[in-house]
User: Fold these one by one.
Assistant:
Number 1:
Amino acid sequence: MLMDDMGWGDLGVFGQPSKETPNLDRMAAEGMLFPNFYTANPLCSPSRASLLTGRLPVRNGFYTTNAHARNAYTPQEIVGGILQEEILLPEMLKKKGYISKIVGKWHLGHRPGHLPLENGFDEWFGAPNCHFGPYNGITTPNIPVYNNSEMVGRYYEDFQIDRKTGESNLTQLYLQEGLGFIFTQALAHRPFFLYWAPDATHAPVYASKKFLGKSQRGRYGDAVMELDYSVGQILDWLNLLGIAKNTFVFFTSDNGAALMSGIMGGSNGPFLCGKETTFEGGMREPAIAWWPGHIPAGAVSRQLGSVMDLFTTSIALAGLVAPDDRVLDGLDLRPVLFNNSIIDRPIFYYRGNEMMAVRVGPYKAHYWTWSNSWEEFNKGINFCPGEEVAGITTHTQEEHTLQPLIFHLGRDPGEKYPISVLSHEYEAVLKHISPIVDEHKMKLVPGMPQLNMCDQAVMNWSPPGCEKLGKCLTPPKSQPVKCDWPH
């Protein structure tokens, strides 16, 4: 279960004061909580590519070289997408007879060759891009919603999102799609992989009529409550079908809460900044593992985890051997899940083509700092509202490679007080971290960047199935340009 822009601090079990996530809190009580779990990138598309490949975005191609350390994703005009050379999790699971379905947002490319059913999934209900809009269909088409390999309508035309009230039944549609898939596979006694990726907590935030106005937190809280309800329904369904003890479930988010959205965004708890940044608020995610009879109930793991671990762990749980022809960044977490062991590993924080920071144990070293540019900040785009820290949340890219800023995240989870470079602690930590970083950079072989080129002609003008619905649109003349990534 992969949420969209949901923050670490949005769950009651992590201290959200409204306590409006009873089902997720129950999931944690019945499973294992990961307070130190990370995404692979502080933005949607690269993090999703890493989940499904087990590899950093800089390896799997989901980054840009158009400018230094820039976040990039897959808007409608993106030319690239997931590379055919990459091996996705459903492709691996197919070797053991698994049926795979994605419900919700794909975001790994919308052109031929990049869609889910061409990359290992057997079924899909959802959209290739974010639910931005509405658009006029002349300069920009509305995003299509797919059922398997053909579109069945478009956002704001056939699948409504009321921008004024926030009402939409999309989460309920996604819930029913997920429940139906589980039922069908359970009835057939087939192994299955469900990638449930709703996007209600991504701006523009939405919830169904039943949930609108229910939360103390406003519309964003309404969306969280509906997602929490949906998680509860899925877990209860697994129990009712008698397959809970045979089903590994993991809940997390694609990146930190979007603080630039103000009250329409979530909470990253005590952590600094949010989405788009490599501070803790941008990359540390809520995470819960659940598997009755296998994972001890009420456990809290101190393991440094990564969304990339879900690839490697799922392969191992299915009885498969991981590919040996490529570097995998994900770990097999079975010793953690079953024995609450700790595996020593670093966490690398990437923004585009640059390794910005690394965490080893409780220590995090920043080699570059940047929130966003002064130009964007002066437009009102603020990734760290009310959280600016002098010399740390900088609006120019600041290099610290010769003398990284080091924080102890146990004592200072908000990254406000760098350890003195004159202290013995700093000297010892730097001596330990430096060779880890040096080895990583020396062995890194970047993949072909897929997020460099844009072209309005490749937007969702005429997706497969549009002719049956009378929804094909005429594209403009192709004019490829380098994508502009300001952040």
Number 2:
Amino acid sequence: MAIQKDRVRFNVGGKIFETTATTLAIAGRDSYFSAMFDDNWDLQPNPASEYFIDRNPDCFAILLDLLRTGELYVPPNVPEKLLYREALFYGLADHVRSAKWGRFDGNRLHLLKSITGRAPGDGTAIRGSPEGGCCVAHGSMVHIYDWMLEEHPPINLDYQRVNDAGWVGPVDPTGLVISTCERLGRGQGGMGLFNSKTGELRYKFSVTHENVVKSYTAGALCFNDGYSLFSSCKGRSNEYGIGVWDQNTGQQVDFFYEPPGWSLGDADKLQWLNGSNCLLVATLFPRKDNCYISLLDFRSKSMVWSWSDMWSPANSDDRRVRDAIAMEENGSICVVNEFEDLGFMDLRRDSGSVRWSSRSRIMKGKMPDEPCYPKLALHEGQLFSSMNDCISVFCGSDWVLTSRLKRSFGGSICDFSIGGDRLFALHSEENVFDVWETPPPSIV
């Protein structure tokens, strides 16, 4: 009798299915089926003998099998786009994504596909979303792709060049912040929060200096877990520094002004450090002739750590650092130069020297005539560095080179990003971006 009570019968588009409450419970509280259960995951009474759902029965069969086995098999006669649409209806999109690709591992990535942009060159940035989609900044346009890699209507910033973009995160999956250059004479520029699906501008982030709203250029972006948004800012008066806003309301809550002899407003990279509650700010060559890397504590309005190459010899490896990233677990900052040499600085020593790792050098000779500068990323204990048309993966306490990702089409990689357990790499010449993902684990 207990088995009979656990059995559930569906009529989907005229086709009968039978399953168990145990299988349906795997779908979770955010699914279509959660309303069938009480707070203790016991089935609610149903006066009818079956549940009728006016949807596609072929897709339902696939999704039900996914709940039963954890595996996703899509027959050739079922378009994947149709299946994804049905998965969204049932609240099973996360289950489909988990079955299609596995937990991110830089050493097991394989190329899913390469997507060609609508115009060659001039790509600014690519940012992976938490759901496995991405956005591509191209001049004054931002092209949006969902996790199915279907393109949504682009966001047009009316000839304001895009400097950076950032996804708000799980609290607002459709929220996308875009930073742009100021348009002289028009009082425009700065940042805005957009709906990535519709392109609608929700609100702008203003900078106030001496109780007056100022026009400004917004640069690098960063978020923290406390729903704060950080951006490097350049204004016409004294609005050079790092601004802070409440991402839920759009209101400015703080501003760290650039100290004399240093550079914050031109920053290329911002990174929030949860352990120390500080912000990494890096202004790098060639935006400036010298490199400036610092940690800012907004609580005390102080620069608690800093480094610059302005005192280094002209022929030193310290000169012309291209990117930087903080590694809190190791208490260090990693930097990369134009030859993809990795250097490390101890955060426990103020203005310490760079310890360069020669084993990381994999490029011979000089950069190409039109280079894309190396970029760094850190994800779950793995370090990634782009150089020309490939991305290198480093692992272990000594950061040993363990694998490389490379495609010959599209030219050098000008930017890459990790999001939603995928890696996205944007090429410079053809505005092509590659999508890399980890195969799902085998189910024995």
Number 3:
Amino acid sequence: MAAPLSGQAPPTAGSGPARPFRPGAAAPLRAEPLLRGAGGAETELWRAGGVMAAGCLEDPSLERHFKGHRDAITSVDFSLNKKQLASGSMDSCLMIWSMRPQMRAYRFVGHKDAVMCVQFSPSGHLVASGSRDKTVRLWVPSVKGESTVFKAHTATVRSVHFSSDGQSLVTASDDKTVKVWTVHRQKFLFSLSQHINWVRCARFSPDGRLIVSASDDKTVKLWDKTSRECIHSFCEHGGFVNHVDFHPSGTCIAAAGTDNTVKVWDVRMNRLLQHYQVHSAVVNSLSFHPSGNYLVTASNDSTLKILDLLEGRLLYTLHGHQGPATCVAFSRAGDFFASGGSDEQVMVWKTNFDAADYGDVLKTQKSGTSMNGTHHTPQSEMDCGVHLKKTKPQDSGRNHAQQEEETSLANTLEHIMGQLDVLTQTVSILEQRLTLTEDKLKECLENQQKIIQNKMS
């Protein structure tokens, strides 16, 4: 049961909605009060417009909240199986929360300063974190809480992100660079260095071929991972760019900025598709729903907002956090999303809306992805790669058997990857201990030599 939280007034009326995936402002519609939490004013939720047919959408609901951090939350991320939720905080700790009732949380201590970002590996067997202590750590999310350290940045690390195959890690830092690392060998590979101010965020594209970065130089840059070249800079933001991410199709990116806006660009045409002005303060974070139809944002105005990308309008405003909402992330399946705030709370929300549709979309997206990880981009330019199509029933028996075989193979590969993650981490920890033992032995031998020399003299 969440602790009582006071609500806030709904957003003011704005102009009409933007056309789906076309440039222009997507201002908020008139908001109407819709839901209050049990026991008074736990949460307030507002649905914009009130024009949807009854039964089309169910409202998001606050499922639970976690308290344990001693300072503002900076980052949240779900594991693949939704059994765990990771959070980072200005209190220098990383915490792993169990989604099962009455299960204890793990507090991981190792960073010497604020933890700015956390993310689970695709398999869920590793967690990466970046810190103001200039390091990146890889953790095994278990009771022991063992970790290995990556060192290459010379300033605060603000962002960590795994590639979809789990083989690479991209990090962004106040040293104005984006760096790419190999996970299993745990080695630094190369830097991307064209930003002229702090880099707040960096993300791989779903197919791993591109990297997008957001900076305090007011630009969003798109990079080719193979050539290591900047292939385009988006300069439409009027302030620092706090967060950026790829649409699940890989055809679009969305960015959040200190100018209170959220912008969506097509990375094939390099043009602005949508421009949302729905927050009244800095937008700190955003996350795409796995279906690609929705975007959730977190802002210093203390609200979370859910945007319908196909309609180009605001769907919901959620009031829960006391003070700035600093981070937000959907689960891998999209049925939950988590948020963190300066109130030191992590909140878990059940998505609910469009539940009947997004499961079909996820299945369609999975079937449209080949075994080598390459996503088959839809043909439409204006819908940002989202298609809702129903498969024909012909050859259902053969297709079902083929799907079962593919699912079994995928599960086996995922298990192998997970075991490889654990094995790599174990070897790395053993190497660290061996190095430490060698250093101690060397120190002992040096001390012994000094003692012998003193006696001889």
